[in-house]
Predict the 3D structure of the following.
Amino acid sequence: MWALMQAAPVGMPPSSSPSPSPTSASTRASADIRQHEAAVPSNTPKPENAVTVAVSSRVMFRTEREQKVFEQKGVEEYLRYQIEHENEPFAPGPAFPFVKALETVNARLRELYPQSEELFDIVLVTYNHAHVGIRLINTINHHNLFIERFCMTGGSSPIGYLKAWHTNLYLSADADKVREALAEGIAAATMFMPEKLTEVSESQLRVAFDGDAVLFSDESERIFKAHGLDKFFEHERDNEDTLLDHGPLKGFLEALGKLQKKFYAKGQRLDCPIRTYLVTARSAASSGIRALKTLRAWGLEIDEALFLAGAPKGPMLEKIRPHIYFDDQMFHVEGAAEMGTVAAHVPYGIAQKHNPKQKSSVGK
């Protein structure tokens, strides 16, 4: 159906940081990286002004072959393999179309606001040692990507760096690091590689969100899990005018909305290259109004809202064709992946304590 990308980082166990070998490769890598740093364009935005998206190299590119070398032959053989193949670019991974769409939005923003630093800023995050960066840089250049910021941690956790970069979203194959980022207040999700991929727009970034435990807190989901469907509906009716608390990805939706408004200000609402979607298993009449009132009170605009009343999300997502869909329940992530949608799991809230394949998700 779809493959979960292993949590272990490519070629570098979290607790290790081997010395680069051979020395000539290490020296060459350091020189290449210094040269790359010296060539940073003047229009690279400052992190505090940008919408920073940190992407693991393992979701940005396909690295399964290299991972097998590491697992079967060890670190030293893996390092030699990377050096021998450093001129061979990695193939695109599940986050690749999303990042390309971010760059498309940046190009449009630069046309309208040439001096503005309110842009998407992409950081490539990897556990690898710096000398593996040569192949990553070659791959980025091969695919004509604009990624100037690297975070090569040599086996250390990247979370502290993400906070220093004011990261708005972190995408990784490592579920443990995603949970660590969420615990630090960083919007984060675990990405997966579907067996098939639906073609997505090359001119418009499309981002789809689940509601409870993603944009909103898991308050309503907790009522449903503890007391059942009737109490859930009763709770929503009684609290119709009470705003839901924020969820882990509210801030990322706010960042998208801020950039959308820059296009609206130039009269491009109908031609905006960013489009957002709420795809929820809530029903519109009985529990949807509270979600919409909360978004309105937050000053956030969702372009499209789909209240599915428990119907499968996969077919709707196939029609939307988002570059990424965020959900806190693996059941919905799997359903989306079966239809070819790149779905990301947000391991947050009460649903993580229940069977991830459960089909009851009314509060979603």
